Amino acid sequence: MALQTSAQDLSYYLPDDVTYNPAIPKPKDIIFHEVGEWHVTHDRLVNYMRAIAAAAPDRVKLETMGFTYENRPQVLLIITSPKNQQHLEEIRQQHLLLSDPSKSASVNIENMPIVVWIGHSIHGNEQSGSNAALLSAYYLAAAQGKQIDELLDNVVILFDPSFNPDGMQRFSTWVNEHRSKNLVTDPNSREFNEAWPGGRFNHYWFDLNRDWLPSVHIESQNRLEWFHKWKPNILTDHHEQGSNATFFFQPGVPARVNPLTPDKNQELTNKLAKFHAKALDKIGSLYFTKESYDDFYYGKGSTYPDINGAIGILFEQASSRGHAQETVNGILKFPATIKNQFVTALSTLEGAKNLRKEFLDWQRAFYVGSMKEAATAPVQGYVFGDVNDRNKTELFVAMLLRQQVAVYKPKNDISVNGKTFKADDAFVVPMQQNQYKVLRTIFEKTLNYKDSLFYDITSWTMPLAFGMPYSELSATQFNNNLLGQKITQEYKLNGEVSGGKSNYGYLMKWTDLYAPAALYELQKNNIITKTATEKFEIPVGAVNQEFNAGTILIGVNNQPLDADKLFSLLSDVAKKYGIPFYSIQTGNAVTGIDMGSRKIVALTKPSIAMITGAGVSATDAGEVWHLLDQRMNIPATHLEPAVFNRVDLSRYNTMIMVSGSYNELNKEKLKAWVSNGGNLILLEEAVQWASANGINTVTLKKVKSPTDSAKRVPYGEEDEIDGAQQMSGAIFSADVDLTHPLAYGYTEKNISFFKANRVYMERSKNVYATPFYYKENPLQSGWISKENSDAIKNSAAVIVNTLGSGRIINIDNNPNFRAFWLGGTKLMMNAIFFGKIIDAASGRVEE
Ligand SMILES: [Zn+2]
Prior knowledge:
Helix content is 30%, strand content 21%. It is built from 23 helices and 38 strands. The protein is α+β, with helices and mostly antiparallel strands. Zinc ion is lined by residues 123, 126, 239.
């Protein structure tokens, strides 16, 4: 079936009882096509926003929040009445007082505008939102009359036309290049089936709609700065869902609201929903509420506002995914999807205007209520800090600062619950502060849930994710006298060569997050590097110091650089990564192995390929890419299976396969490459694939069924029972063999892993080959069914196999999860740098 272009002029979308200022350019004047005729690219979207701001400076102010990885601007329009524009800063300052319970009581909200953030298309391939932004911006800048004047007098609109510019550009390019003049509506057509990795993600293939809380990515960081600069009362999050669906707006499933979100939040969500229902009824659109979607994980845009005194609203429009597509509801045309988004952006503003005082009051009450709860909370503070990994600790502090948490240095050392936190290396957060609820969601573990179905992960306890030593401080353990200097900005550590230039050698500890980055930088400069496989004690200056296994030795003799140049390189690397090197003058250890011991082994510079492409989990692959590229400055080749099958693999000594299915890959070639000395790292479902294809020697455990096949179960319970068996993602503690090369740099006997899969490995028959395993009760936080819980008990988290002269490292969890699971980083980097030095006999299994 073919369709002529479904171009619609503005009259299709806009309310017909309104006149428009002719001086304001229409979208077509700037983007060269009608809204919905093509997918607007990000560049043209920005051009239009600029044009609007230039033509209507009395109503519209354009700000640039920052730039994406691909250097696209993240623009924000601030739209309000000319009168408000003249007092914008004053309005902002007054508005912020509502979020400060020490000052909010006296704030008069009688004439105060409400602040609404309208946000579009965080998933790049859900573009009806950003295309509707053209219409909303035009309407808000150009509409004339009493109604718009009243709206703009009462509302300050923070208008974010694209939450994910890089993804938007990728997707719009894809659908436009496949569009036919006679629109093809067959869902099988290439237009509707994007090439891997698709436009949903940001540059590094991350889902930005999971990043509001950890805020790892530049897009989130730029946006959060403006979010907290204004602290909006409402934030909308315009998405798309499957093509056969209709339209969804929040409230979502009541039982799946995060317990930290107050009931009043959902009450206001319901009140706002009446406005959306009315607007959609008027144009005849079908919709649903209270199903499918939830309000649980604060990393999502529609949930994050709920613990920040605001209300987040999720919209989900059925996707045409291209320009027009056949669905069970007939042919879904792109313009129709845009219209629903436009109409609900306006209904949000209409609701905000009508419920203005109630929302403003709620923001004030939210913070007063939080403070009241904080005053009587059993936990009054947290102390944290990793004396062995100061860079990781600083990243944790930076994350708290982005969430507007007040962080302090302790005045003195703090000894609590059997742990001592040295004042120099630790930080304290008091619970009695405005961001009390945010702190709770960052620090708390959760083991009780009202429901067993989840849209996303069930737990995200940040100190566990970071592998950060921490402790609660109870009311009797905490008082304000513990607090020293307040931290006001991110701190960049300054590393140096302790002890100055040496003519003998240098040591670098392996405990710091950035130690692998520093090592690679040396290897890149052809410096000969070795690692100690046992601990030792040696003089550094006048003091004997202990060094654990994993410590890197750089001898001065025989290097391509002379002693002066080597010292200068090490000084630069120390400074760049904020890591100390230690100068030694002797190879003679006080205790343990000497520097010439055969237990100090030479390392090879990793030359890495990661299999990417169709079938591979883009987010998991993206996490590896981001880790290596952004944090470690290590290049990795992205190898498509077809290319893998064709090329000479001998230039790679390390191969990474993340969760995925690899049916196209030449298995014999992979095995031969490992046998020749390759180091193969398998994550999650890749372990399962390798097991099924005879590549590794891992035995997988079967998970028991929750039902008895001899008994009938009501059909109506299927969703609930099957859904509960999914592993949405929870946190498990694993026991660590600290003597194993894969554990170098870890100092604690237990490590927290994040697992969101049903791959359960039996422990290896070789007693040395399971350096990480789960014990009897490994669940630390999150939800898991009884059947999954039984399966994970005593199972292996990491197994090493030997194949020929190569190694296969099987990891059952995701050590790189969403780039905030820094507790797993060491394992991943150890697998890359130390896989080759693992003793062959320790990984061999007789079959
Ligand atoms: Zn989405």
